[in-house]
C-alpha cells in the first residue's frame, strides 16, 4: 500500500522585524524552538501534519527561493568514476575510485570511495533520470529545513524511513525536508524573529504511525549555511494531536 503523495508547503510566516528602536541582540546563528505539531484528518485522499516552531536570527538571512538550484543549493552531487563517467545503478564496468562533483561542468572532485561502494537500490542514493538511474549523494543544503520522524519502541527511538516503508517505489516520498522561503528580501540582514507553520501532506501518516508513540526532530540552515540548534518535540501520538476536519 502506498502513500499517494507527499507535498510540502509553508502556510504562514509571522515576522517581528527590528524597529527604529533598540534592535534585539540575536546571534547570526539561527535559533529555533518547538511550538506544536498538529495532525489534520481531512478524511480525503491525503491528510496534513502542521509543524509550528519559533525562530530568531540576528542577520535575517533565512530563506531560499524555488529557483536557487545551483551550488551550494543544488539538489545532489553526481558520482563519477576514474574515467570521469557518471556512475549508474546498473553499470557493470565502474572503475574506482569514485568521486563527487556538484555538476557535470564543475571539475572539482571530492573523493567518495576507493572502491565501488554502490548500495542496493534506494530512494536516497539514486536519482532516476530519463536514460538511467544515477548514483548520487544528496546535498544537505538544498533544503533549509530538515525533519525526521522517530518512532519509540521499548524506550528507544528509531528514525522512520517513509520511502523504505512503502518499498522505495515512489521516490518523491523520501522525506519531509523542504524550503523555508525568503521572508522579505528588503529586510535581509536585519534581526528577525517569528513563528513558522510548516505543512506536510500525505495519506501515509495513519498507515506508518498508527497508534505508536513518536516525536519529530528538526533543524534549519540559513543562507550562509549556518546550522541552527536541533530541536525535538515531546513524545506524541496521532490521537493526541488530531484535529478532525469533516
From TrEMBL:
Superkingdom classification of source: Bacteria
Protein's recorded name: NigD-like protein
The species this protein was found in: Marinoscillum furvescens DSM 4134
